[in-house]
Design goal:
By secondary structure, this protein is an alpha+beta fold. Helix content is 45%, strand content 13%. The strands form 3 sheets. A 4-stranded mixed β-sheet has the order 5-1-7-6, sandwiched between helices. A two-stranded antiparallel sheet has the order 2-8. Strands 3-4 form a two-stranded antiparallel ribbon. α2 packs antiparallel against α8 and α9 packs across α10. It binds a DNA duplex through α2, α3, α6, α8 and α9. It is an enzyme of class 3 (hydrolase).
Amino acid sequence: MTSDPFLFLPQALLAWFDEHARDLPWRAASPGRRDPYRVWVSEVLLQQTQVVRGKVYFERFLTAFPDVAALATAPIEAVLKAWEGCGYYARARHLHRAAQVVVRDGFPQNYEEWLALPGIGPYTAAAITSIAYGEERAVNDGNVRRVLSRLHAEKEPGELWVQARADELLFRADPGRWNEALMDLGATVCTPKSPRCGVCPLSSFCQARKSGRPGDFPTPKRRAPVQAWPAVALLIGDAHAAYLEIRQGGLLGGLSGLPTEPVEDGDEQGALERLLGRLGARHARLLGTVSHTMTHRQVTLRVYEAQADLPRQAIQAHALSRLDHKALSLTRQAQTALFEM
DNA sequence: AAAGCGGGGCC
DNA sequence: GGCCCAGCTTT
């Protein structure tokens, strides 16, 4: 029988976590098991979102919807308003739908039942059930992937490989604490660039460190190139109240925004005329141009002011993307410029 | 298996 | 400007 090179690794990590665990609002010490609702909301907020940002939205969201019943009975517009600016808005829509299922059927009691809810995938189901229920589930997220890639000096860890390594390393006496410890280590010590191996409790176990270039693990994933996305938008109203449409489809779906039309083949006039025709608007005047970068799109929005007999919505009461807020701020700048003249 | 989906922080 | 973030859903 060969000796296990990771034999003393669990103590090392858990001792480090005793000292260095981050103080996060969803970890608030309710003795014993933690409130599944709070863990759930935090885990969804933290999907592809850094902890420092997630914190702010967690407080905001829990104030608006203190429990699952409050969330389930709220209108979707209110849920999106609480999520406004956080991105990946499908998370909020799924969370809202799932809350209604939970109010009807009760809280899921295990991994499989959580996985069946909208917006809950393998990571989130493992996180919730290990942290709130003590179920023996190893999480597999970006932190775990990076830490394990380095521990084993595996430059291109696949999903199945990471899950298998995480499963065999899982500290089964306290799975939730173990998962949190591994993720905290990845977020604060075993960072993507310039890992702080000098203070890492796992450095003596780490093959990547032994290689001398721990930062080279894992190999960066290839990303789709950013696409240019030219469009025109119509402002009917002002910065405080304007005609808004609820965006359909994937991009910013469910959010309110200025009526927008994509520019095809560089034909801005054509796009503008389609927009004016659709809304029965007239007297378009260029307000300005807004640039907005998303992960996979570079939006250039030409914003026109126009008149039309259409209802104006209070901006403050609706959830808008950063893009639409930028477009609206064009009028403020125009007003400020006039005022200063 | 790959693409689509926000926004911000950091190098 | 590139890369990453407590990923999930759809195709």
